[in-house]
Structure formats: structure tokens, C-alpha cells
Amino acid sequence: MKYCPMCGTPLAISFVAGRERPVCSSCSFVGYRNPAPIGLLVATKDGKMLLLRRSIDPLRGFWAPPTGYVEIDESVEEAVVRETKEETNVDVAVGGLFGVYSRSNIGVLMIAYYGKVIGGEALPLEDAEEVGYFGRDELPDQPSEYGGTAIDAWFADVLEDVFVRFREGRI
Ligand SMILES: [Zn+2]
Known about the structure:
- By secondary structure, this protein is of the alpha+beta class.
- It folds into two domains: about 1-35, Ubiquitin Ligase Nedd4, Chain: W; about 35-165, Nucleoside Triphosphate Pyrophosphohydrolase, CATH 3.90.79.
- It has helices spanning about 75-90, 150-165; strands at about 10-15, 20-25, 35-45, 50-55, 65, 65-70, 90-100, 110-120, 130-135.
- Zinc ion (ZN) binds near residues 7 and 24.
């Protein structure tokens, strides 16, 4: 960040709130950098988990639950309901918190919920090449390799954790 997004003045580095940050000398804007929240929904129907095969990066070609960025005018629960509909056409009711996945310096954090499918035929829509329901002993194999970015590695770990917990019956 080189220029103030509020007034266009070049930013200078100053010590603010515990560390050096870009600060505007004109309007006092401080360039805080925080991870953006992503919602994920582990939705089940008759004991099977809803998964889509991703058509976009990160992890294009991997099977994953619906995920997406949380918009400013919605809660995380609302975001996962919306994303699930946009990506798979499936209607869901959100249950409890599944987990929070966070790692330093990747710019995002994941908040995952459980959910129940309440309607809608599963179809591959936005960001999805295929969709399907998978039981504990029929989870799809993932591609053997993925890209080299930190977010690829983190997201692969998230999906691995979801699959392991589902396979072991902890979902
Ligand atoms: Zn400014």
C-alpha cells in the first residue's frame, strides 16, 4: 500500500498500535492488514457429505466443500448458505461450528460450519466442475500434487482435516 485509499496522500511508515504500519500524514488513515474471512460448509444428506470438484485456484481439481469469501453485508452463516447455493444449487440449514483454520501470513482465515441439506438438486454451478454426495468410505481421491503457494498448502491441509474427521465418523 503506497497511497492513502481515503485521500491519496503518499503513506509513511510509523509505529502505531504495537508495530510499524503505513500511516497517512494528512487524514490519519492507518493501513492495518488483517486476514479476510472465508466460510466453509460441511453439509450432509443421509450421512453423505456434499463436495464439489473445484474449477478455480487455489486447488483447482480438488474436491472440497463449498467455500467463499464473507461479504461485508452478511454473517459467516449467511455467506456459507449463499455460497453453497451459488456453487452447487443446494439449499442448506447451518448447524454448529465445525472449526476455525488459521495460519500466519496467508491473508485469509477459514470459519467452517456443519450444515444439513434441506433441498435443491446438486448441480455444478460457479467454481465447480462436478458435485456429489460421498459417504465415509467413498471419499474421492485428491490430485497427487498441488501448486506451490502457501495458500495451496494450507487449503490442502484444511481439506485433509475435513476428510479425516468425516472418515473417522467425527462429523
Ligand atoms: Zn489520507
